[in-house]
Amino acid sequence: MEFSSKLIEQAVDAFAQLPGVGKKTALRYVLHVIKQDKEQSNNLSSIIARLKTDLKFCSNCHNISEQEVCEICSNAARDQHTVCVVQDYRDIMAIENTGLYKGKYHVLGGLISPLEGISPSNLNIETLVSKISAGSISEIILALNATMEGETTSFYIFRKIAPYQVKLSAIARGIAVGDELEYADEVTLGRSIINRIPFDSLLKK
Amino acid sequence: MEFSSKLIEQAVDAFAQLPGVGKKTALRYVLHVIKQDKEQSNNLSSIIARLKTDLKFCSNCHNISEQEVCEICSNAARDQHTVCVVQDYRDIMAIENTGLYKGKYHVLGGLISPLEGISPSNLNIETLVSKISAGSISEIILALNATMEGETTSFYIFRKIAPYQVKLSAIARGIAVGDELEYADEVTLGRSIINRIPFDSLLKK
Fold this sequence. Notes:
Two copies of one chain form a homodimer.
Chain A: H1 6-15, H2 23-35, H3 38-54, E1 56-57, E2 64-65, E3 82-86, H4 89-98, E4 104-107, H5 126-134, E5 139-142, H6 148-161, E6 167-170, H7 186-194, H8 199-204
Parallel strand pairs in A: 3-4, 3-5, 5-6
Antiparallel strand pairs in A: 1-2
Helix pairs in contact in A: 1-2
């Protein structure tokens, strides 16, 4: 694409760095910002700057936080002995929205993916292991995507923490609530039969 | 969606103002900015601010420009008597990329759309009419989308400039180069037969 203005070109390049945004979409965003009220575009501009200055990663669980230690880690009312391992901040949001988990989290910051060049050393796995070796954790719950990358990462963590005395579980795979059996894929359906659960546990919630 | 951080919530709201961006996509953008190098996010932030301060709309054709009068309008080598009417900056880019048009432009800034609350008074139509009434223009080419909104706008402009002595044309509708006839819709195919062109004009380019 050829732009008549150098500034527009630079702005398109900057927006095109966002995930899933190509040059055409970036140009759409740029034209929208040009049309916006000055107040709105200044707000977007200043908030982007503040994201880098005001936010940190929690020193304990690597969650995004405005403090040195995040709200969940500093909340004494939560179960200190259970740690749920997730990929990123969005997964914490999703699990918190269920209202059914009261333990702590550990954010990996990604999943092992040789295709994208993400190896275990790029993830927060070492800090998880040292937390476990410190000894105060009784259960680790792996809550990673049910994808190739998620399963690989789960298996890697399983091997890493095998030497330690800690209960390791993974969130259940099965038929989603509201789904019809006949449309479920074979792997999911097969697993849901093998990992069948006592019926009365379905009645709890 | 509930966010643990007020800042993240504000940032998601700011990004969600961009066209076609919902809260989930906005959150993806926000998390990406948090992970980015400080330099990159500062660049995005400052360039958004500059878009509003450094860019203007050309006083003649309403195109986006870094000067008071845009490069195309101030280019004396271009045909001063032909004006191509387009919806926005992207259409100018597309037409300029063909390299086949050497006249000037007039940017409407949108299309008439009662559903979106855009009426003729929201568009740069009056300035087009006064340009024509000034008398130096010999041809107006309507290059608007082949949609309901585009056709409505074309027809509105046609009626507005009917009193003036100016040639009015519209870009050709027909089978796109590379398309197969059997997959073309009936309206397009029908029009392409009615508006058939001398064969030798196909040989020129």
